Every structure is written in C-alpha cells, then in structure tokens.
Write the structure tokens for this entry.
Amino acid sequence: MKRRTMLAVAASALALAVGAPQAQTKYKDEYKVSTVVGTAFPWGKGAELWIDLVKQRTGGRINMKLYPGVSLVQGDQTREFTAIRQGIIDMAVGSTINWSPQVKELNLFSLPFLMPDYKAIDALTQGDVGKQLFGILERQGVVPLAWGENGYRELTNSKREVRKPTT
C-alpha cells in the first residue's frame, strides 16, 4: 500500500493530506486536493492558498487542483480518508469527525466538554496525544503533517442553557 500524507485539524477538526514524498525525479502532472467544503469557507480558502504557495515555491514543478465538496468521492465525507489511502485523492483538507469511521481514535475530538478552550486543544494536539494520533494515522497509510482548529460543535436544546455535562 502506498503511503499518503495528511494534515489533521482538531476540535471539530480539519485534516490535510498530501502524497507522501518518494524518491523520484518526475512529479505527477497534477495532484488532486480534496476539501469537504467549498472555497467560500476557511478550509477551502486555506487549500487555495496552500496550492498557490506550493506552485510558487516549487517554481511551477508541483501542480495541485482543488476538488471541493469531496467531489472525488461523490460527496461522501466519510470516504475521504479511505480514498487518500487508495491514492484516489493525493491530498485533503478534511475533518477528524469525517475520518473517525476509519480511525476510531479521532473520535476524541468529538467528545463534548473534554476541552475547555483552544489552549487545551493545543496542549493535546501538540503533546504526546497528538504524536500518538499521528502514529496511528501513519500506521493506516496516511502521514500527518500538522494539526489545526476548526472551532467547537454546538450543543443546544429547547429547555435550558447547557453549561456542563450532567451525571
């Protein structure tokens, strides 16, 4: 199985995947970059910026094309991780919540009230836990590049304000 590279993002997380570096002198004509959302959203804008920077900094040797709305997997967000492993997608800016069906440990970021603020998320992703999760992803054929944040999920109801979990 070919190894792929990705970037995962926490807290309702985001992930970026890139084809793993190989000893080669010729690049593909075009690398496919998947995003879950369209280009009007921060993930899409970030992917566009990344594509532009790679092209600029490689003198045009590496060309990447953005495929928003997980269009490479017919809009099925949960298939994106598998498609990276299979080489259908070369790179992805995706979410841990969408990749968690294949990598159960990524459900960590979906646990309500686990992380009180962004400082706690940074401590988690930049510490031993983040390293362990990267190792898990690598063993599944995807090489992580970095963590990022995409904000918190919201929990609401029609009865009262939710401030903490109840027992």
Summary: The longest strand covers residues 4-8. The CA atoms of residues 88 and 139 lie 19 Å apart.
